[in-house]
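Why do we bother with holo predictions? Because pocket geometry can differ from the apo form. Keep that in mind while you read this record for AR6.
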Amino acid sequence: MKIRTMLGDITKIQCDAIVNAANTSLLGGGGVDGAIHRAAGPKLLEECRTLNGCQTGQAKITKGYRLPAAYVIHTPGPIWRGGENGEEELLADSYQNCLKLAEAHGCRTVAFPSISTGVYRFPLERAARIAVGTIRAFASRASSVDEVILVAFDPQTKGCYDRALEEARS
Ligand code: AR6
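The structure, written out:
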């Protein structure tokens, strides 16, 4: 399984599934969540309303509607509260549960935004290491997913991903 990083807007990416850094209501919000709902159109919210929310670290899947991606995998990442409240484990759960759902739906390519590092204030470098570590650990048991794209919306996030990947490979 290949892992690559890119700078860009996740709503423009042509792949089987994009991940949404959602909240537990799954009813939309700001940041990447707002951008995904705007780009997908109102049918995405309609489907989300049928899902009854989602717990932190878990994931639920919908269709992509007007997005180039076939599916959206929604996961509420943890809100950073100092690091003593299971935040690291919950962030790893988010990545892992998204990958499991992608596998269950036969996805080959999956794109992730930097979950929890915006409004939820998870420290960026730690989050990047958790993202890379969890995806690499999953790679050994992945059968359908063969490419994961880590999509950074700003150069600082891209730099953190690239360093975390380099560290993990060396
Ligand atoms: N493409 C890729 N990444 C993006 C995009 C985009 N179009 N837009 C923003 N980002 P955030 P969180 C980056 O705050 O911290 C929402 O209101 C952004 O720069 O979107 O998990 C939800 O409803 C940052 O690097 O998500 C929740 O209430 C990253 O995506 C809450 O925010 C995540 O930032 C979730 O907070």
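The two ends are 17 Å apart (CA to CA).
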